[in-house]
């Protein structure tokens, strides 16, 4: 009887180790594959930026571009995540989009404003673990930290102004035009970053809010703003 129990215990330990190794490998492999996909898409987006811009009619400014689900619109830079941190931003928050190692722009329940809009909330989501884990360190951001959104023509510099460490995954108010629970009390030009929490789970959501403080035009050398140097 004792030997049978001992054998069962060894089998359970072995099974536990195999499962742990499988989970670790799965997270690592999805990170590798997602980063490869994001790098390819990011390279293609930058190539389109290098092409001459289409002129607007007459002397009028060109209209703001329209983006479909999955389209790339720019890059997110978070200095607190590392000096060379860069995340491709694409339209949509479906698994098909987010699983490719990007930050996705909310299209529902509120359609996110864009950085160049004169008012609204530019709301993004990304995975905390696996599939690139672009927001793995989102909990490291504190008030005053810089977050920069890079588009073809401008650098949008935001400053973190508030954090919600944990809320229900059904709390859609955190990505509203004036985010509920944020320090903002009226319309403005905001940025919201959301991800799952606690780490390695998807039970709750966390949110980080930032406010636009400056827009720097892109120069010929694409010199980044001081916050990224």
UniProtKB/TrEMBL annotation:
UniProt protein name: Membrane protein
Domain of life: Bacteria
Catalytic residues of the enzyme: 127, 196
Key word Lipid metabolism present: no
Region (Disordered): 44-65
NCBIfam families the record matches: class_E_sortase (NF033747)
Keywords, ordered alphabetically: Hydrolase, Membrane, Transmembrane, Transmembrane helix
Stored Pfam families: Sortase (PF04203)
Transmembrane segments annotated in the record for this chain: 12-30
Coiled-coil region list: none
GO molecular function per UniProt: hydrolase activity
């Amino acid at each position: 009887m004792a030997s049978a129990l001992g054998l069962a215990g060894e089998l359970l330990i072995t099974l536990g180790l195999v499962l742990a190794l499988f989970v670790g490998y799965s997270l690592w492999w999805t990170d590798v594959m997602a980063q490869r996909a994001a790098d390819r898409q990011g390279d293609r987006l930058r190539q389109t930026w290098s092409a001459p811009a289409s002129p607007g009619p007459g002397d009028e400014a060109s209209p703001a571009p329209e983006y479909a689900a999955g389209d790339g619109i720019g890059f997110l830079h978070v200095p607190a995540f590392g000096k060379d941190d860069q995340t491709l931003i694409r339209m949509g928050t479906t698994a098909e989009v987010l699983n490719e190692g990007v930050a996705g722009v909310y299209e529902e329940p509120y359609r996110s404003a864009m950085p160049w809009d004169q008012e609204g909330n530019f709301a993004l989501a990304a995975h905390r673990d696996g599939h690139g884990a672009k927001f793995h360190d989102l909990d490291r951001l504190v008030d005053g930290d810089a977050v920069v959104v890079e588009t073809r023509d401008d650098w949008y510099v935001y400053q973190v102004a508030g954090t919600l460490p944990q809320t229900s995954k059904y709390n859609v108010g955190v990505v509203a035009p004036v985010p509920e629970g944020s320090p903002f009390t009226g319309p403005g030009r905001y940025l919201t970053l959301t991800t799952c929490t606690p780490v390695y789970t998807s039970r709750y959501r966390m949110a980080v809010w930032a406010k636009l403080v400056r827009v720097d035009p892109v120069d010929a050398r694409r010199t980044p703003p001081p916050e990224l140097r």
